[in-house]
Structures are given as structure tokens and as C-alpha cells.
């Protein structure tokens, strides 16, 4: 249900998860766990900027 309601998916992982087909209808952004810990706000800002530029 959470996936069905999500606008975007952010994977913060060391290894790509299995069963990625469950995310096919969503935009998936894969980042390193280190980036998520050290720069969470920056990562979210980058994703917001990418989405905004895609909508123009």
C-alpha cells in the first residue's frame, strides 16, 4: 500500500534490493547509505530539482 501511494521511491542501500519490479510504476532514486546519512537534505533537494526540471 505504501508503494502504491508513493510519488517517488528513494532507495538508500548498499546493495540493490531484489524484486524491483514492484517499483516499476514509480520514479526510483537510488543513493548510497552514506549519502543519505551525511546529506539527506541535499539529496532531497536534488531530487526535487530533477522532478521540477522534468515537468517543464
UniProtKB/TrEMBL annotation:
Keywords: Transferase. GO terms for molecular function: protein-N(PI)-phosphohistidine-sugar phosphotransferase activity. Coiled coil: none annotated. GO terms for biological process: phosphoenolpyruvate-dependent sugar phosphotransferase system. Signal peptide: none annotated. This is Fructose-like protein phosphotransferase enzyme IIB component 1. The lineage of its organism: unclassified sequences, metagenomes, organismal metagenomes.
Amino acid at each position: 500500500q505504501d508503494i502504491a501511494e508513493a510519488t517517488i521511491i528513494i532507495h538508500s542501500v548498499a546493495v540493490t534490493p531484489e524484486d524491483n519490479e514492484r517499483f516499476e510504476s514509480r520514479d526510483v532514486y537510488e543513493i548510497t547509505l552514506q549519502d543519505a546519512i551525511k546529506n539527506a537534505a541535499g539529496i532531497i533537494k536534488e531530487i526535487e530539482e530533477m522532478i521540477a526540471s522534468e515537468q517543464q
